[in-house]
TrEMBL record:
Species of provenance: Puccinia striiformis f. sp. tritici PST-78
Any one GO molecular-function label of the UniProt entry: tRNA pseudouridine(55) synthase activity
Basic and acidic residues bias locations: 35-48, 310-323, 358-367
InterPro entries given in the database record: PsdUridine_synth_cat_dom_sf (IPR020103), PsdUridine_synth_N (IPR002501), tRNA_psdUridine_synth_TruB (IPR014780)
GO cellular component: nucleus
The protein's Enzyme Commission number: 5.4.99.25
Disordered: annotated segments: 35-58, 299-367
HAMAP family the UniProt entry points to: TruB_bact
Protein name stated in the entry: tRNA pseudouridine(55) synthase
SUPFAM superfamilies recorded: Pseudouridine synthase (SSF55120)
Domain Pseudouridine synthase II N-terminal, first and last residues per copy: 127-262
Superkingdom of the source species: Eukaryota
Family: Belongs to the pseudouridine synthase TruB family.
Length: 474
């Protein structure tokens, strides 16, 4: 079949052949230009360093993903707050499509017993809520309060970026008492005289410990090896399989900002004393560390300038901290001490600690509440134990000290400071604010009482509005 004649006669078949070709050409060129501009816009968005704008009440993707921070209260675990929040997410259209409440329908099986129907819409929503991923970028101990970064859904992958950044703390230490955990949630191990300690000595120690140090966590309550706490080795009289590995940390800034004598504060030592059996185990654990020794890893790198435990388990120390359980024959490790002695600067943030002078003052629990407290503000690298710093300062001034208050005031870009406070910082850098936990707490209490806060015009409750206002979408 000869098709050539058909193509030759094509202009005759179409009345306005030339205009049609010109129109097609112009339309093709317009499509190409629009496509080129859209690709340029995408490229600009990818390379932009500006944070993504929070989604509006009418413009969000379900389920919601992103990073935000709450102001954690003292006295509760971080994980318990996350679990409570997931119950709220289950009722929100930010995370579940059409989250209307459904009654639980029950049927009867062959035995006549009640059984929840798998096809019930309630359980469909429940399973949808279970699929919501919630993680934290560095937990806080129950005693501690302040900035707690939370990741939702796909943004949980970004929580690792929160692990290696610097953190700022405000902590209060009380003199005269030593506990097994170095804070007031622990048990009292010993009491020491404090009357000779002056505020100037604390300030001097703060200046002397700035910079890089090697640190070990509280021996009795925090140290583990091969997944087993050190007190288990001591209790069973088992030698440690290898030396303790010190953690590298850096005190970027530290300053004593307040000092209060007895009568000017209400803080007291914890009242629970360590038992006689626990005291023996505590001494054995300390002896085990001294006998085995302490080593430091030169492969541990500080990441102070990045803007510290994600979804897995994290503590005041971080997931990215150097492990205490690495192999003894690691060629990158350097043994600090010869022989069996574990005494070295790696045991403490304080160098050349003085030997406590003999004191005629006998300190008992009757003196509880009579010792002064000091307040420290510090900015530290990832992996720093604030409790250990306070404990070491107490030892350095020939006394003892334990943490009675700990607030994380900043972590990376998130801060407790208001916008006006952050604008006064050096360089005018601004940080992202936190959502106060009371916002979620009121919503949780309303649900438990069978009521709920009235939504706004967009159908969003107060806590949902605050979340959309603060979240950094991924």
């Amino acid at each position: 079949m000869n098709c050539k004649k058909y193509f030759t006669n094509l202009p005759q078949l179409i009345p306005d052949w030339n205009n049609s070709c010109s129109s097609i050409y112009r339309r093709t060129k317009e499509i190409h230009r629009n496509y080129h501009h859209s690709e340029m816009d995408k490229s600009t968005k990818k390379t932009s360093s500006e944070p993504a704008a929070p989604p509006s009440s009418n413009n969000f993707k379900c389920p919601l993903s992103g990073l935000f921070a709450i102001n954690k209260p003292s006295g509760v675990t971080s994980m318990s707050l996350l679990e409570a929040m997931k119950e709220l997410f289950f009722t929100s259209k930010l995370f579940v499509e059409n989250p209307e409440p459904y009654e639980i329908q029950t049927g009867t099986n062959e035995n006549g017993k009640g059984k929840k129907s798998r096809k019930n819409k309630y359980w469909q929503k429940k399973n949808q809520a279970k699929a919501i991923k919630v993680g934290q970028g560095g937990t806080l101990d129950p005693l501690a309060s302040g900035v707690l970064i939370i990741g939702l859904n796909s943004a949980t992958k970004k929580l690792s970026n929160c692990l290696d950044c610097s953190k700022s703390y405000r902590t209060i230490g009380i003199l005269g008492c030593k506990t097994d955990s170095y804070d007031s949630d622990g048990k009292v191990v010993g009491l020491s005289s404090w009357k000779h300690v002056k505020p100037e000595e604390i300030r001097k120690e703060c200046q002397s410990i700035k910079g890089e140090h090697w640190q070990i966590p509280p021996i009795y309550s925090a140290l583990k090896m091969d997944g087993k706490p050190l007190y288990e080795y001591a209790r069973n009289n088992i030698p440690l399989p290898r030396p303790i590995e010190a953690r590298r940390c850096q005190l970027l800034e530290i300053e004593m900002v307040d000092w209060k004598e007895s009568g000017e504060h209400s803080y007291k030592w914890p009242t629970e004393m360590i038992s006689e059996e626990e005291s023996k185990i505590f001494q054995l654990a300390e002896n085990l560390v001294k006998q085995t020794g302490i080593i430091k890893s030169e492969s541990t790198k500080l990441k102070n300038n990045q803007t510290e435990n994600g979804p897995e388990k994290f503590n005041e120390s971080t997931k990215r901290e150097p492990s205490l359980e690495q192999e003894e024959n690691n060629p990158k490790k350097v043994k600090l001490v010869d022989g069996s002695s574990g005494n070295s600067e790696a045991q403490s943030s304080i160098k050349n600690q003085p030997v406590a002078p003999e004191s005629k003052d006998v300190v008992t629990m009757d003196d509880n509440g009579k010792s002064p407290v000091f307040t420290l503000e510090m900015t530290v690298s990832s992996g720093t134990y604030v409790r250990t710093i306070v404990h070491d300062i107490g030892q350095a001034v020939s006394s003892a000290a334990t943490v009675v208050s700990l607030i994380r005031t900043r972590q990376g870009d998130f801060s407790l400071d208001t916008e006006s406070d952050t604008s006064n910082r050096t360089g005018g850098s601004k940080t992202l604010p936190c959502i106060d936990w009371s916002v979620f707490e009121k919503a949780i209490q309303s649900r438990s009482n069978g009521s709920d806060y009235p939504p706004n015009e967009a159908g969003l409750r107060k806590w949902e509005q605050e979340l959309l206002k603060h979240i950094q979408v991924s």
